[in-house]
Write a structure and sequence with these properties.
Structural class: alpha+beta
Keywords: Cell wall biogenesis/degradation, Hydrolase, Signal
EC number: 3.5.1.28
Radius of gyration: 33 Å
Number of helices: 19
GO molecular function, one term: N-acetylmuramoyl-L-alanine amidase activity
Strand order of the largest sheet: 6-12-11-14-10-15
CATH topology of the domain at 662-965: Neuraminidase
Distance between the termini: 20 Å
Protein name: N-acetylmuramoyl-L-alanine amidase
Shape: globular
InterPro entries: Amidase/PGRP_sf, Amidase_domain, NAMLAA_amidase_2
CATH superfamily of the domain at 662-965: Kelch-type beta propeller
Length: 966
């Protein structure tokens, strides 16, 4: 295999990865049948059982590991050891100053309460209750999907009996049992507790669901609109308004009688966080700062994990001596939302005053559980609905530069860095969360040094990095190394809590270097390498992207953990400045490095002065805004700030096909034409993407021909017996509409439908050759003169009879156009148009290279220098012959299929030349395959499937393909 071909193929992964464990043998009939069997055994409607499980876990078993709130297996049954939780909380690192101003604590601040343990109750022990009902050990319900489903069915049936309701086959009659399922049937719950969960279950019943789990189990729930319609469920629907990235920033106002700021599709309440003075010192108060923020002040939404139960956490936030709060708290069992701080006020949640001032904090119920590796679906669903509402209301962009974890908040000053939190942690599924937000994009072009890349590992069994003291399981990060195959950057470890050597899903970085399947990014002031097989990162080459670099002449740029104004701004506002004020972290942004800005508009440094509980200090509750401006950037695992005076915005390079050995592919799929590209010099692919259907072209296209010329790709297509043309501008990546060549002003009409076409170039001229009514016709576009020449009858010039040729292919050596064709006699012929001498000639190639045994079903040709290569598909196998025009000799047929190890018959063939290699693309089994012949090294590569991740990506079944190279 050639070096360039090897760079484009998928290789075995390197680096510190755990090999994916083989899929465990499922119960004999699989998950779908297990649901059916349990439903029948316990007389629970099968559709209801499926819907409950889907809303608990999306039918995932998580291989026996608990969620952050103690849920296990496909039914999400709970088993929480409160003593173990308390021990884990006691061993945890102490809380940082969540107010985030870095000032010395006053008064009783040193006596801050410990994280709240979960309040015990039936909701924490549904697995044990289910185990008793079915007479099986609790361990089986944790680890065996069938026993988990049986236990869940038994619990539902038990709740139905407790409600003195029949075990009906009508799911609508089970609404109360589903409400009770969410909290173990606890008595005395609030009037809405569990209804959010039940409504989602019946919403799932209404629309149905289907997915393949990470363990390969395909499960389907057929929609049952009638069950939802006549149940007590409220149709909460989904927040369907688009999440606006450019929405006007609106004021954060709420009526005094109704302070809840919550989407209508969620069940929410308002329980205020504690706000009171804690000692004789008026400066000693908690738990938030009274403010009048408007929408223009809110730039981020921060995701937290409480590491304590809902009720206990709520009590903590109500205690002003906690010195901590959040705007919202979400309950795990049913996704209920409690607002605690009005969004106009500054909650103390992030441990960084700048981030607190400009964000909304959302806490998610979660215990300090050993082995916890997932979050409940109810948390994801409610949180995403809330975040979507907030982003739309306040104009927060729905991307991972603005929807961030607490672990991505920077330490405000260097002494605070090590104490910053790492929730929601390694096992928060950012991919799923961003999907729920409608914002998980996967840009699809190849990697460019200096361009942008998004970390995007799959949160599935396909990717399970090694983590110390943790079983192999999905995680949301990639490890970063100091060199390809070298040690982890810095003194990094493989501990789950060590964020210093990890890049987390959704984070955007700048590509610093590429070596084969290793990609380097600029990270924390250095090159950081990760193994990149195309499945764990996505190039981001969307137009209009920028990166930040130091201004010319600066050796390095200071990096800050907060964006405070200059001292003069405090003096002008009559407010004492914090000491220290503008203080850099120990990190820098060196010359030659580049980072992704969270915004291309710098923000003014600001500081909200609110030192007393009652606003009694001079100039209390004043927002100080300075003249110095900052860009927020993705610096390492966390965000950071750089002074706008120190850096410049530079357009990110996006054209992966700008230089080097490149090819363009055009393929017809069952759903329409698609285009992709490969850069063999850089070892990157641009993924397949649809091309415009604008214009008069019918579908499907019967065949394509393609060539590079003048910085563009020119395509011709045969559809409905007519010839069409379109161009791709490689600078912008855009395709023109398709144009009908057979109109006046272009090539003009043809008397008969076209059955075959090909294309080649001589200088600035593109020659379109077609078989029309059995005649060989040629039309020429002269791009230098800007005109088309009408169709000419090549058969007439050569004296060929109608129907003399069938399959055709064309290539050019200098100003000589070679048209190869399969004759009606089954032999391969050539028509040569010598544009220097103004004459045509005709010959029989078969006489020079020998006959082929079998039926010729495809023909392709390419020229390089003085040589021409002719390739034929014979009964699904590929043969090759070549002509050396300088030496005046032909070489006979060679067996390309044998040299490449071809095993699947080829139905369509396309060929081009780049560098020293013949690039061969064929359609086999409805997929596009690629093999490369390196004539300098004298060897062929094996066939590679271009539709795999890391190459051009999956597409619908293909019928024909064309290729052009340069």
């Amino acid at each position: 295999m050639t070096a360039s071909a090897a760079a484009l193929s998928l290789a075995a992964s390197g680096g510190t990865f755990a090999a994916a464990a083989p899929v465990q043998a499922a119960a004999p009939a699989g998950l779908q049948a297990q649901f059916a069997a349990a439903a029948k055994e316990f007389k629970v409607p099968e559709s209801l059982l499926l819907a409950v499980s889907y809303q608990q876990t999306r039918w995932e078993s998580h291989q026996g590991r608990p969620s952050t709130t103690g849920n296990y297996n496909v039914m999400g049954l709970t088993q929480v050891d409160l003593a173990a939780v308390a021990a884990a909380q006691a061993a945890a690192e102490p809380e940082v100053d969540l107010r985030g101003d870095g000032e010395p604590r006053r008064g009783a601040k040193a006596a801050r309460p410990a994280p709240a343990a979960p309040v015990d109750g039936p909701a924490l022990h549904t697995l044990d209750a289910a185990a008793k009902l079915i007479g099986r050990p609790a361990a089986e319900l944790r680890e065996d999907t069938l026993q988990s489903i049986r236990g869940g069915a038994a619990l539902l049936a038990e709740q139905q009996r407790r409600a003195k309701s029949p075990l009906s086959g009508d799911p609508a009659t089970w609404y109360g049992a589903v409400v009770a399922f969410s909290n173990g049937g606890a008595q005395g719950q609030g009037p809405d507790e569990g209804r959010e969960f039940a409504d989602r279950v019946f919403g799932t019943l209404k629309v149905g669901a289907a997915r393949t789990t990470s363990e390969g189990q395909r499960v389907t729930l057929v929609a049952d609109p009638a069950a939802a319609a006549h149940s007590p469920a409220v149709d909460r629907g989904v927040e369907r308004q688009p999440a606006s990235r450019d929405a006007a920033r609106t004021a954060l106002t709420a009526a005094a009688s109704d302070p809840i700021e919550c989407p209508s599709t969620l069940s929410c309440d308002f329980q205020p966080a504690g706000y009171a003075q804690n000692s004789a010192d008026v400066n000693d108060f908690g738990n938030y700062s009274v403010a009048e923020r408007t929408g223009s002040d809110i730039d981020y939404i921060v995701i937290h994990d409480t590491e304590g139960g809902y009720a206990g956490s709520l009590a903590t936030f109500k205690n002003p001596a906690s010195y901590a709060s959040a705007h919202y708290l979400l309950r795990s069992s049913d996704g209920h939302v409690t607002q605690m701080v009005a969004n106009k006020n500054v909650a103390w949640h992030a441990g960084n005053k700048t981030l607190n001032m400009h964000s909304v904090g959302i806490e998610h119920e979660g215990f300090a559980l050993s082995g916890a590796s997932w979050y409940s679906e109810q948390l994801y669903q409610s949180s995403a609905t809330l975040t979507r509402y907030l982003a739309d209301k306040f104009g927060v962009p729905l991307d991972r530069q603005h929807v961030i974890g607490h672990d991505e908040v920077p330490g405000p000053i260097q002494s605070a860095v090590n104490g910053m939190h790492w929730d929601p942690g390694t096992f928060w599924d950012w991919n799923h969360y961003m999907d729920l937000l409608g914002a998980h994009t996967t840009p699809d072009q190849g990697y460019v040094v200096g361009g942008r890349v998004i970390i995007n590992p799959p949160f599935s069994n396909a990717y399970r990095p090694v983590i110390n003291n943790v079983p192999a399981q999905p995680a949301n990060f990639v490890y970063l190394y100091s060199s390809p195959g070298g040690p982890l950057i810095g003194s990094g470890t493989q501990n789950a809590s060590d964020w210093s050597d990890k890049a987390v899903a959704g984070g955007s970085y700048v590509v610093a270097d590429i070596q084969g399947q290793w990609t380097a990014i600029w990270y924390n002031g250095q090159k950081a390498w990760f193994w990149n097989d195309g499945t764990i990162a996505s190039a981001d080459n969307r137009p209009g992207q920028y990166v930040l670099t130091p201004k010319p002449g600066l050796g390095s740029v200071a990096v800050y953990g907060r964006s405070y104004p200059e001292y003069g701004a405090y003096t002008a506002a009559g407010v004492p400045a914090p000491d220290p004020n503008i203080v850099a972290l120990s990190a820098t942004l060196p010359a030659g490095h580049a980072y992704v800005p969270a915004s291309t508009t710098p923000v003014a440094g600001d500081f909200y002065y609110a030192p007393t509980v009652d606003g009694s200090a001079p100039h209390d509750r004043t927002l100080v805004t300075g003249g110095v401006k900052y860009y927020p950037i993705r610096y390492n695992h966390r965000l950071a700030f750089v002074s706008a005076d120190d850096v410049q915005l530079v357009p990110a390079p996006t054209d992966v096909l700008a230089s080097g050995e490149r090819v363009q592919l055009l393929a017809q799929t069952s759903s329409g034409p698609v285009n992709a590209g490969a850069n063999y010099s850089r070892g990157v692919w641009e993924q397949f993407h649809p091309i415009p259907s604008a214009g008069p072209t019918p579908e499907p296209k019967q065949s394509f021909a393609l060539l590079y010329m003048g910085g563009q790709v020119h395509a011709v297509a045969l559809a409905g017996g007519r010839v069409y043309t379109a161009d791709r501008n490689l600078t912008t990546g855009e395709w023109s509409p398709w144009y009908d060549l057979q109109v006046t002003g272009l090539a003009g009409p043809l008397a008969s439908p076209v059955t075959e076409l090909t294309v080649a170039a001589t200088g600035s001229k593109m020659h379109v050759v077609a078989l029309s009514g059995g005649r060989l016709m040629e039309a020429t576009a002269d791009y230098g003169a800007g005109r088309w020449y009408q169709w000419g009858d090549v058969s007439g010039a050569l004296g060929l009879p109608t129907g003399a040729l069938t399959k055709i292919a064309a290539a050019a050596n200098g100003n000589v156009l070679h048209i190869n064709g399969v004759g009606s006699d089954g032999r391969i012929h050539v028509a040569d148009g010598d544009y220097n001498r103004g004459m045509w000639s005709y010959g029989d190639i078969t006489g020079a290279v020998g006959p082929l045994s079998g039926t010729i079903t495809g023909l392709a040709t390419v020229s390089t220098g003085s040589k021409q290569y002719v390739l034929a598909v014979v009964d699904g196998k590929v043969k090759q012959a070549s002509a050396d025009y300088a030496a005046g000799v032909w070489a006979g047929w060679g067996d390309v299929s044998g040299a490449t190890g071809q095993t699947v018959p080829v139905t369509k063939l396309a060929v081009t030349w780049t560098g020293t290699s013949l690039r061969l693309f064929g359609v086999a089994g409805g997929r596009v395959l690629n093999a490369n012949g390196d004539y300098a090294a004298g060897r062929w590569s094996s066939w590679m499937d271009t539709e795999v991740p890391g190459a051009a990506g999956p597409i619908d079944p293909v019928t024909t393909v064309a290729v052009a190279g340069t």
